[in-house]
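User: My instructor asked us to take a sequence, write out its structure as tokens, and then describe one feature of it. I'm not sure where to start. Here is the sequence I was given:
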Amino acid sequence: MRLLHPDGTPVHVAYCTNVHPAEDLDGVLIQLARYAEPVRERLGAPVLGLGLWLARDAAAALAADPGAVAGLRTELAARGLEVVTLNGFPYRGFHAPVVKHAVYRPDWTSHDRLDYTLDLARVLAALLPDDAAHGSISTVPLGWRDPWDREQQEAAARTLDALARELAELEARTGRTVRVALEPEPGCVVETTAEAARHLAAVDTDRIGVCLDACHLATGFEDPAAALDRLDAAGLAVVKTQASCALQADDPADPATRKALAAFAEPRFLHQVREYGGPGTRPAAVDDLDAALAGALPGRAPWRIHFHVPLHADPEPPLTTTRTQLEATLAALLGGDTARTAHVEAETYTWGVLPADRRPDGPEALADGIAAELGWIRDHLLSLGLKEPAV
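Assistant: Let's start with the prediction itself. The structure tokens for your sequence are:
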């Protein structure tokens, strides 16, 4: 979907296809018919944006075959779909039985990460709609924090310098601008916007910026307006934002709350937990929900859990979500006189690991859920003063 900010900026709204398992182009094409086009039809939108996830092998195959990219673009257009952003965070195997820390590998010390991201950039440059101002790719926030030393930091800096040079060359050759956005995430080298400002101080900010994930921001108890001020002071643009909600437990010592939380402790993804420590205090931290429930956190203050839950729907009490923080994030980005991002992506990749009674039963139910999330985003952005463009 496209909406128009009062300052004239077209704001692209998409959903991220990393919710669907596909490691090759055939799998991606199946997704378009089974999920993406039905979602567009449910929304009554003339065009629906996709934040495509292309696994490493699919990206390499497309980058090596311009004809295949042209065919994908044709298929997208035929189904009323468009792509201005890619999710380049998971490398491959995102729907393996156990993902956990593997999602952060390879990190930005590795040329494998560079090569993958450049393949994505080449594909995206060819997929971009003719009237799109630029494309975006979200990626790993350097890497997982442990181990991470000065040598790795210097290696990552060199790799990001090479990325910026290659993106500039791609723009010179194709006339299309692609920007890469590092996505702060709990437990990573770049966990907060303050760490983004520190670790990315020397990057080429014309090519590299930040992907602001609202779930991650809320999990770290960061205030959205203050976070944007930090990024502005560092000269880092919000190249892309991911509309997402974290799970919240207001009283984690309550037995009913702990029983409800246990239903969200699952083996595939990492669900970092943070316990509120008070204003200006870094929250207490643990790397997964099962460890938190086993006593690794005090449990005396609210918890926020890195579990992307549906934007429009509340979990069963006593659990809640960080929807109010998502609303504040969108307001800070798009509620003012100037649009501070142009790419908004719903990224609830966890539909398939929700507690059994909350999990969609089949493709139609999943399409219903994704459409409801996108409808929520559209309605909220309209309430902030954005408009639907004239058809």
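For the description part of your assignment, you could build on this observation: DSSP finds twelve helices and 14 strands in the chain. Try explaining in your own words what that tells you about the chain.
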